[in-house]
Amino acid sequence: MLRAxxxxxxxxxxxxxxxDEFKITLAMPMDANITLDxxxxxxxxxxxxxxxxxxxxxxxxxxxxxxxxxxxxxxxxNDSVRKVKLAADGLGPELNLIGGANVDSGEGTDFTRxxxxxxxxxxxxxxxxxxxxxxxxxxYREALITLEQRQREYENSVDRVKFDVRQAxxxxxxxxxxxxxxxxxxxxxSKRVETNKLLLDAGRVEVRIVLDSQDALVQAQNDVTxxxxxxxxxxxxxxxxxxxxxxxxxxxxx
Length: 254
Hints:
mainly alpha; Outer membrane efflux proteins (OEP); 3 domains; 6 helices; 2 strands; 67% helix
């Protein structure tokens, strides 16, 4: 009995500590009075473990298409390419066609009788060779350096996306296996309690054995709930890292 009371007190203290930590996570005042909805735990227990049929290769392929941070880095590379092209255009030679004409109108100011055959005409080319364009060369060099930086950033982001997806996939499979193990342990603990009750009625075991098996059953139930929570979180992380997690305006995900 004393051991059961000690376990109860420890569980209450642990619950209150986790509740305070949850308030900090939500940025709520520490003296705020909140309680957990027990229906959520019941609903969580009713969730069926779905077979996860994604492969890590499919996850990476999806992430490379749908990850917004990767798309942003790709846009930066394209912007840098355009800036390099503009800077390169500034280094090219300029060739302008120039011309002029001087036509008399004869005596008086009769402009309807212009003497085009006696006019003076001038035509030529004006060239601006890139012999002294230090500012343009510096701009081109800076554009190339920026492009190389953006390309490295993009390549690093691709590697990071692949790493994130691989890590999330490993954690998801681990959480799935852990849940299966915990669920089998719960089934075994339930059978052990029933068996020990029958043995107690037959006078073949002591009450302490039954109590120990009941404690083990409660622990197994907690382990299954924790494993299911871990699996749900791991699945959300995988969906987030592959870019397929959609969050609605109300904060719920789909």
